[in-house]
Amino acid sequence: MLKYNKHINLLYLFIAFIVLFSIEGFAHGVDDSTRNFLNNNTGLQIIPFIYIGAKHMVTGYDHLLFLVGVLFFLHRSRDVLLYVSMFTIGHSLTLMTGVLANIQVNAYLIDAIIGLSVVYKGFDNLGGFKHFFGKQPCPKKAVLIFGLFHGFGLATKIQEFQLPSEGLAANLLSFNLGVELGQFLALMFILLAINYWRQFDSFQKFATTTNTALMSAGFMLVGMQLTGYFIN
Fold it and tell me: pTM here?
């Protein structure tokens, strides 16, 4: 029992840690050094944009919580690759399109939908759709659709700054490449942690509690972003 509690406590500590950092998300999640760089950016800056993209994904608690939910019950490498690819296609498409086409979306509302994606995945993992509605939405399509919203979330962060048109497309591609690198790094740790935990009986024993915690974190993110929307 002591070993079970150790694993569970570590996981819940991780969830609590990234939710606590949602205070930064309340301010749209761009630190001062990044904000200063983007405000003064001129021309082509491939390496800095790769770094910023990777950092944003690694510290992007909302993206990480959603990916934890997506990967929680995936056993086969083929499924992991498929679902991650669907998510990547979705957020890459709207990230590039949102900025280049100057599609304006309220950052608080889009971040609230991203929080809702965490709620959705926890609810789906709990079997809530089948229990209450008798049918589960296609999980692959859902990951793709929520990937589109996550991409718009990234686009809103970029659009907060008046980036020069010179080198914009290349800078965005670099930012997106950084996002993918950061996502790969984060996924590696998430998969290692889940696959390690899956070896123990506590994984199934606490699966319900864990996904309930995911839903709670998602609701918290939704509430904080909607609060930000109404008071700003």
Answer: 0.82
